[in-house]
Amino acid sequence: MEKTLVIFKPSAMERGCVGQILARFQQKGLIISGIKMMWLDEAILREHYSHLVEKPFFPHLLKAMMASPVIVVCLAGLDVVNVVRMMTGSTNGREAQPGTIRGDFAMSNQENIIHASSTAEEAVVEIGRFFKPEEIYEWKPEYMDFIYSSL
Ligand code: GDP
């Protein structure tokens, strides 16, 4: 099954809403294939946000992403990249639809609770950036047959 990367940013860690958001993903029927806590450093953030390094807000983004440890999660499921992006909502929390994670938890462009991979290709690269191969588990809970039974 397809996989995607989610990062619980320092805004989620500080506000103590990691459990609530992880519960949304599990309730939806997504499988946790990998999960760990880590501090991000400037080198990995420059790689991860390479499309933003020239932006004036980049130094602020760097500082915000290193304000606490983060939790990185690899989720698996059918069309999981698109499903998680839909559940995440627009970048700016003030513009994100209510019902999405950013729409329900964020009021900021920068402090927007989670990162989620944008495309399946990007997800492969991002999972490789944050996880060692042996940290990703290929498994499927038994009850998944009731969620994915139309396959
Ligand atoms: P995403 O894929 O929705 O996370 O959006 P981007 O890849 O465009 O941006 C990456 C992250 O940079 C966002 O999630 C925000 O945390 C941050 N960011 C994006 N735009 C802005 C901005 O205009 N100002 C600030 N301060 N941060 C931003």
TrEMBL record:
Keyword Manganese among record annotations: no
Gene3D superfamilies tied to this protein: Nucleoside diphosphate kinase-like domain
Keyword annotations from UniProtKB, A to Z: ATP-binding, Kinase, Magnesium, Membrane, Metal-binding, Nucleotide metabolism, Nucleotide-binding, Phosphoprotein, Transferase, Transmembrane, Transmembrane helix
Positions with a binding annotation for ATP: K9, F57, R85, T91, R102, N112
Residue ranges of every copy of the Nucleoside diphosphate kinase-like domain listed in the record: 1-138
EC numbers: 2.7.4.6
The protein's required cofactors: Mg(2+)
GO molecular function: ATP binding; metal ion binding; nucleoside diphosphate kinase activity
GO annotation terms (biological process): CTP biosynthetic process; GTP biosynthetic process; UTP biosynthetic process
Active site: H115
Residue intervals passing through the bilayer: 64-84
EC main group: transferase
Family annotation (Pfam families): NDK (PF00334)
PANTHER family per UniProt: NUCLEOSIDE DIPHOSPHATE KINASE (PTHR11349)
Family named by the database record: Belongs to the NDK family.
Name of the protein in question: Nucleoside diphosphate kinase
Species for this entry: Paramuribaculum intestinale
